[in-house]
Structures are given as C-alpha cells and as structure tokens.
Specification:
single chain; alpha/beta; seven-stranded mixed β-sheet
Length: 316
C-alpha cells in the first residue's frame, strides 16, 4: 500500500455506517436517529444483530422497512464479542472504492456533524482514516471527556488503539486491507486481536497508511452495566488494567500485534519484531503515563518469540 495514494472525497461524501447490535433495544432508536440525522453527508446504515433476545431484531426490521437508508444483514451467526461481530461486518460490507466507512455501537449518540467534520479532515489532510476523543456519560448525569488524541508515536499502533472504534471514519482502502489481513489470518488458523479498534489501527498503520486522531469529542459515549468495553475511568478501571498487566495478558496482546504488523509491513524492515525497553518508553504509548506503565510491565521489552520467515502468512 502506497501511503501517498489518496482517493478524492466527494463534495457530499457517501458513508456506509456499520452497526453491531446485541440486546440494545433500550437505546437503539436514539442512536439510529443520530446516525441518520448526520449533516453534509449521504448515509447508508448497515446493521447486523448478534442473537438478541430483547426485541432488538424486530426493532431493526421495523426501522429498515420504514427507511430505505437502513439495511439489516440476516444471518444465524452467534459472535459473542464486539470484535468478532465487527470483523463480520467488515467482511460483509458493500464494496465500493468511492465509499467512506464508519463503525457504530448501538448505544451512543452522535453529534450531527460527526461524519461531515471527519470527512473534511480526510479531504484536507489526505490521511486514510480519522478517529477522535469522546464524551463518556452516565445515567446519573455525569460526563467526562475521554482523551485519545495525544501525539502519535512511531510504535503506538503496536500497543493501543486510536480511540473507540465508534469514532472511526475510513477510506475504502483501509477496509479492503483489513479484509485481506483477516482472510490471511483465518487461512493460517490464527486469530486477529480481540479488540477491533486496535486491530484496524494496527493494520492501517503497519501497512503504511496515515491516521489522524481528532481532539474534538465526536459523540456521547454511553456508559451502563451492559457495556462490553466502556470508558476506562476511575479506580475500578485502573485496578482491572493493573491486573491485566500483572498477569501478562497485555504483553501477550502486544506480541500478537507485532506478529500481525509483520504480516502487514509495507516495506521490508518497516515493522519491529521486538520492542526494546527504550522503544516502549519513547516510541510506544501516546500518553506519557501509559508509556511508563507499559515499560514497567515489560521491563525487558517485548517481541515475537521464535519467529521465522516461513511462519508469516501471505497477505495479498
């Protein structure tokens, strides 16, 4: 992939929004309305449901019957996680090099100019994808800005996502590249990362594409007891994160990310098979505090163990 190749963004961008649902009936109408009310763009909403039992599927069919901009993918799959569900949506999304693609959760509320603003960033800067900060909010009225827009670093994509996937707006080449990598992993019996937002960012950056992280919070990020992955705020979130670090789970994910990056590398030697301690500290996570914690949790660095060239799956 040539990072310099930039497709033109039309004056009125056409955006395919991929929404994953599971037992989201209490919030779906508000979220769907906020997606369809986007200004300055033409929206097509493609929705897949993951075996809901609360009437979500019927609600979706009703909304699709009443609005031609909504399409529901009918299937009998059970995904069990947001990541697997979004990987399915990426594989089954309509293929059109002129489309932009966005991801949507079932329970957020988008600001009306979310897609228009991010399409303008794509047009002005020539990057392949945009994500952003969000405003987390709770039923009791509390709200907190979640900042992800710290300056990008050389290896940050090996260690973290660029913000929630529900903030992403991507050119078609990002989606096509993700499809190719997911297919290559499946063919070789390997798993993608269990976090779709991190996985998409990893594939794009490791393939030589450019990504912008906008400091403007583009949506209201609803927090409730059914969130699979919510905002990492407060002492409970900190305790959970420290447990993952101590268990070695995070180091394992970084090794997996490095292995996938080596599959995607856009030129020989572009991806790092091993991150040294100094790499983690200076070129790893975007926020300094997180970089220090990551370095302390992996004091000898981290890399792919015993990697051989013939172990690397081919990506078309």
């Amino acid at each position: 992939m040539n990072a310099a190749s930039v497709g033109a963004v039309p004056e009125v961008p056409h955006v395919c929004v991929l929404m994953a649902t599971h037992n989201g009936a209490p919030w779906l109408d508000v979220q769907i309305d906020s997606v369809l009310a986007q200004t300055g763009v033409s929206v097509r909403l493609v929705i897949s449901d993951d075996a809901s039992t609360d009437g979500t599927a019927d609600l979706l069919r009703s909304r699709a019957a009443a609005d031609r901009r909504i399409a529901v993918i009918e299937h009998d799959r059970r995904f069990g996680s947001a990541a697997r569900h979004f990987y399915f949506l990426l594989e089954h999304a309509p293929r059109d090099p002129g489309l932009l693609y966005a991801l949507a959760d079932q329970d957020d509320i988008w600001h009306a100019d979310k897609l228009q603003r991010h399409a303008d960033i794509l047009r002005r800067t020539g990057v392949q994808a945009v994500s952003s900060d969000v405003t987390a909010f709770w039923p009791n009225g509390r709200s907190v800005k979640i900042r992800k827009s710290f300056a990008q670093k050389r290896w940050d994509y090996l260690l973290e996502p660029p913000g929630p996937g529900c903030t992403f707006l991507m050119r078609a080449e990002v989606v096509e590249r993700c499809r190719s990598v997911l297919d290559a992993l499946a063919a070789s019996g390997r798993e993608p990362l269990p976090y779709h937002d991190w996985m998409i960012y990893l594939v794009a950056r490791a393939s030589g594409m450019r990504w912008s992280i906008d400091a403007w919070p583009s949506l209201l990020y609803r927090q409730h007891d059914r969130n699979e992955v919510g905002a990492h705020v407060g002492w409970r979130a900190t305790r959970h994160r420290l447990r993952r670090l101590a268990s070695g789970e995070y180091a394992g994910l970084v090794r997996q990310a490095i292995a996938i990056a080596l599959m995607c590398e856009h030129r020989p030697g572009a991806a790092a098979p091993h991150l040294r301690t100094l790499d983690l500290l200076l070129h790893g996570r975007r926020r300094w505090r997180d970089a220090v914690i990551a370095t302390l949790s992996m004091p000898r660095g981290v890399g792919v163990v015993g990697r051989r060239e013939h172990d690397r799956p081919e990506v078309p």
